[in-house]
Amino acid sequence: MERSGPGNLVASGVLGVLAISEMLLRSTDLGGGFAALLLLTLASTLPLALVLGSGGPARSGTAVAVSTACVLSLVPFGILTVGGVVAQLVCVYVLGRAGATRLGGLLVLPYVVIALASHEEPTRIVAVLVATLASAAAATGIAHHVRSTAQAHSATEQAFADTLLEHAARGERARIARELHDVVAHHISMIAVQAETARLTTPGLPAEGATRLLAIGDTARTALTEMRRLLGVLREDADTGVQRRPQPGLAQLIDLVDESRDAAGSRTRLIVSGHVTSLDPGIEVTAYRIVQEALTNARRHAPGAAVDVELRYGDEDLALRVRDNGPGSTGPGSTPALSGHGLLGMRERAATVGGTLRTGPAPGGGFIVEARLPVKSEEEKKEKGAARP
After folding, report:
1. pLDDT tens string for the chain (389 positions)?
2. DSSP string, 224-271
3. Are the C-beta atoms of 302 and 366 separated by less than 8 Å?
4. Does an H or E element contain 361, and which?
5. Angle, alpha carbons 305-322-280 (nearest 5°)
6. The pTM is what?
7. In terms of Cα–Cα distance, which of 214, 222, 192 is closest to 300?
8. Phi-psi map region of 379: left, alpha, beta (phi>0 left; psi -120 to 50 alpha)
9. What's the farthest any 2 CA atoms get from each other in the chain?
10. How many Cα neighbours within 13 Å face the side chain of 183?
11. DSSP secondary structure, 15-27, as one string
């Protein structure tokens, strides 16, 4: 609730003084009832401070009290001070501006009734004048209320549009970060591995050639480091992932495994079980990217280790498992693999299609990545359950 400020108190006080002065000047014509009329005059002006400074029921009740005092001053005594008229106009304007249009109209109604029913000409004239001015004041207040409400709605819609744009930008940044990491990091990592493999396995390689191959590997690793910094900037304020557009699928896993085997020079197997069938493109691209990232991590953190890629088709889900027989995430000579954007990206991809992903040391040694991706929507599952007897 708002508070009555000094300005509101001064305004109501000035109106009260003017009204009392007017009553004193006209006291010779009043005869009896001067004391009651004086109280009505004060009641029709001084409470205006509460109307200006309060809100809600307090404002409405005070406005009704001011209007009642004005009407009681006009009907029995035939007198309404200028201060009372001003207070009445301010009341209906404030109510209209606050959105209390019905109450503002009800405060004008008594003056219309007085103008129609009164037999005294001065009283009828005053009532018509007040009804006209009060209607104009109420209309002005309502117009201000409508305009301010429209501005507030416009500001809200603009803020909502800005929020949607910001979320779209964040989602796009996260999508770009995943694409860069999945595609670019994969190939740059292969460059580094192939350069290192060529340096160590090429017989009779001149010293200058070995130096150049070593420089190629170092450059590739530096590029990976710089790219991860860029991905950190792209990801820093992206809240959620964005649904990916299907690209490669499970049909390209054989090529991916062959490529990984040729690059690392180690044994990489693809094991498929279950009834092979076409899946939703979003599921297939998610599975492909998870396997791609897992193979990249295996080459980076367990070079030379054998890797098994297992793909099992089920009725309810697609199970992925990528396991290497390297030193694991904590063994001698290993590089910690439990942090970074690679595993985070895999988890994000699995989550976007309603799946789960688990990573960690494998039983008996090595590192394992396991994912389960649903191959049917919740609606299809419900329909299948309803069809069973």
Report:
1. 444 567 778 887 888 888 888 777 776 655 556 778 788 888 888 888 888 877 778 888 888 888 888 888 888 777 888 888 888 889 889 888 888 888 888 888 888 888 888 788 888 888 889 889 988 988 898 888 888 888 888 888 888 888 888 878 777 777 777 777 777 777 787 787 788 778 777 888 888 888 888 888 778 877 777 777 677 666 665 544 444 444 688 888 988 888 888 776 778 899 999 998 888 888 888 899 899 889 888 888 888 888 999 999 998 999 999 999 887 655 444 444 444 567 777 888 888 788 899 998 988 888 999 999 998 644 454 555 555 44
2. HHHHHHHHHHHHTT--S--PPPP-S-GGGHHHHHHHHHHHHTS-EEEE
3. yes
4. strand 356-361
5. 150
6. 0.42
7. 192
8. alpha
9. 131
10. 9
11. HHHHHHHHHHHTG
Q: Amino acid identity of 234?
A: L
Tell me the DSSP string of 120-150: -HHHHHHHHHHHHHHHHHHHHHHHHHHHHHH
Token duo for residue 263: 């690059």
Pairing mode of beta strands 307-313, 268-273: parallel
**Whole-number Å distance between alpha carbons of 34 and 23:** 9
Residue type, position 66, single letter: V
Residue type, 4: S
Write the DSSP assignment of 48-76 as a string of letters: HHHHHH--THHHHHHHHHHHHHHHHHHTT
- For every residue of 273-340, DSSP letters joined together read ES------HHHHHHHHHHHHHHHHHHHHHSTT--EEEEEEE-SSEEEEEEEE-S-TTTSTT----SSS
